[in-house]
Design a protein that fits this description.
Helix content is about 90%, strand content about 0%. By secondary structure, the protein is mostly helical.
């Protein structure tokens, strides 16, 4: 019969598998953006991987609750278990964002062969930066390294700046050719979805910092906003 340490070790392993599956869906997004085209085979793989993500999310939630009820862990482990539940739920939503991106790519390819080239020119660089942040988080989780986590906070600002610049570029393209308004709107939507994905990564980062250092970054952020 497993003890508390073994249960937590198993949960961490399941959580890491969850992270890796989401990373694969992100890679599928990047592959389609680089090719500037929708790929049915990759989309089919995405559906299977997303189902795996959903299953892991449910298992992590159930096993974490069972562990809390059975072992009544002390504060540190209790915070970790709650983080795993909340983060797994957030990762499941992040998978939904990435799956929705693929349908938008398909729509752009269908509606405007001219604008679909901007999938690689404009959206692809955002996706690459987003992947760098996400893989940084995975690395920090594996190594329990808060220094990596703090370095990711500035990278999110780069995503915000790039999204703003790219949105302005897309609007100019739409002004030049009104027939591209629909595809341009979809391109902007992709930018915003990747920006939201990056924001979700930051929430994961904040929670992990709290586990490693005991600093509630979300509380600090809210207090700073109130001062402003």
């Amino acid at each position: 019969m497993r003890n508390l340490d073994e249960s937590i070790k198993g949960l961490r392993e399941h959580y890491l598998e969850l992270l890796k599956n989401l990373n694969r869906v992100l890679d599928i997004n990047i592959e389609m953006l680089e090719k500037s085209s929708f790929d049915k085979t990759l989309y089919g793989e995405c559906l299977i991987v997303e189902d795996t993500i959903n299953n892991f999310e449910v298992k992590i939630k159930e096993d974490s609750i069972f562990t809390m009820a059975r072992f009544q862990p002390a504060a540190g482990n209790l915070r970790l278990l709650i983080m795993l539940i909340n983060s797994a739920r957030l990762i499941e939503r992040m998978g939904d964002i990435l799956k929705a991106n693929l349908k938008i790519i398909k729509a752009i390819e269908k509606d405007s062969p001219e604008m679909k080239k901007e999938l690689k020119n404009i959206i692809y660089p955002i996706a690459i930066k987003t992947k760098n942040i996400y893989e940084g988080y995975i690395n920090a989780f594996i190594k329990s390294d808060e220094k990596i986590l703090f370095s990711l906070l500035t990278m999110d600002e780069e995503i915000d700046t790039l999204t703003k610049e790219d949105t302005e570029t897309i609007i100019e393209l739409m002004k030049k050719k009104p027939e591209n308004i629909q595809s341009g709107t979809d391109l902007i939507l992709l930018c915003k979805k990747l920006e939201r994905f990056a924001d979700h990564i930051l929430h994961l980062v904040f929670d992990l910092i709290y586990i490693l250092k005991g600093e509630n970054m979300r509380k600090i952020e809210l207090l700073e906003e109130r001062k402003i």
